[in-house]
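User: What would this chain look like folded?
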Amino acid sequence: MTSNFVTDIIRRSNRNLLLWSFLGALIVVGAGIYFLNYYRNLFLGPFPTDKKSVAVIQDLKDVPDYYITLEGDEALDTGYQYVSTNYGQETVEFSYIALMLNDVLLLVKSPGIALVNLPTTYTGALVPMPADIQREVIRDLEAEYPDLKDVFLPFMLDAGDFKTNGYIGLGIGVIIFLGCLYGIFLSARRSNNMASHPIMRKLKAFGSPEAIANQIHAEMQGPVEKVGHLNVTQHWLLRATKSSLAATRLNDVVWYYKKATQHRTNFIPTGKTYEAVILDRRGTIMSVQAKENVVNEMLNYVGRNAPWAIGGYSNDLKMMWDRQHKEFIAAVDQRRQSAPSIDRQ
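Assistant: Here's the prediction, encoded as structure tokens.
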């Protein structure tokens, strides 16, 4: 297809879709490589490990099989728990257990309340000791029991849920990756057949998409009233960016108004955003967001070039548009008969 205003936008749209899809797929692959060992542990673990192998670990970075099942000599309740409070109700999320491995202790983060007769076998992930646990549990125990100083290993066993987040992450990653592959496929298909692009499919409502694209291109070379992303040509109203296009005939415009949205954070007003909303007789909505003064200018352009259209918003107009659409259009057509004559043929 001959290069013109519309096809140039479509080419940039296809290029952007290809780039973002490729980048997304690359990020997912990179994340998969980064978490490869985690997923190896998730699917192949837990690995049976003896206490001697754990007791001699110096650096967890050197331990590829860190999701393990471990049996110690004895398990002792440290008396420390992680408690959450919800609406005044306290729940013990984790208890901290000291698992004896010969002459050293491994701190175990175990879900729920510590039992009276604690098991000596635990399954979980060997993880670095968090600073707050080191400070609030280990140091307090060492202060209370000086004989325990330097007895605890510098890491701990997290016996909580190891797999759920991994499955969720894997599911999300697969969905994103497949979506990216589909985006690459779409980009290739639309590049080979521009008629399949959504922009061209929407232009089909006005006639031959190729002919309409050529007409828009020709009018964009002539006098154009432009404010923000809104372009008003002899016959067309266009919302155009470098890679997107929405179009309707000026003759089809029936209603336009300014939409203000109040944004709040923690119920405190943080500002407003403004949109020029333009509707045509087919029910197509064109929305252009900009600063309030730019939106006002856009709507002035629309009103000046489509004087028959109804300007402004009210609940009655909205109700009539939703429930009496044909009557709404008929009222606009009646206004057109008495509106100033503008050649839009």
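Residues 5-34 form the longest helix (30 residues). If you want, I can go into more detail on any region.
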